[in-house]
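TL;DR need structure tokens for one chain.
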Amino acid sequence: MIRLEKLLKRARNFSGLTGLEAAKFRVLLAKLEILWANEVIALYKRPGRNCTLSIGEQLFALLLYYRFYVSEAMLGAFLGVDGATICRCIKRLEPLLVKIVHITPMEKVPHSQAYEGLFPSG
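>> reply
TL;DR here they are.
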């Protein structure tokens, strides 16, 4: 299983895998966490198991899916979870990410142009 925090410390590796710099990933994650709390967690206030992957790991999985367009089973094996878990991550996060990054859900292009305007210049 990939340890996200360890990977974030290796800037070149992280950028090569996701197409984002680690600092930009953290900004995107902070914005996503707010939407996640308001639109997902607020709806599921009931007993049950917690998510296997953290919100950061789910975002990482979604970015890998966009970047390489590998199967959910392959991505699940890479992250140490079942392919169905990856499928649920994509289904939950994609609509939230669209609200932040302003791409259409079917546009699988996580290049730097898609993130322009999200981060201040400088």
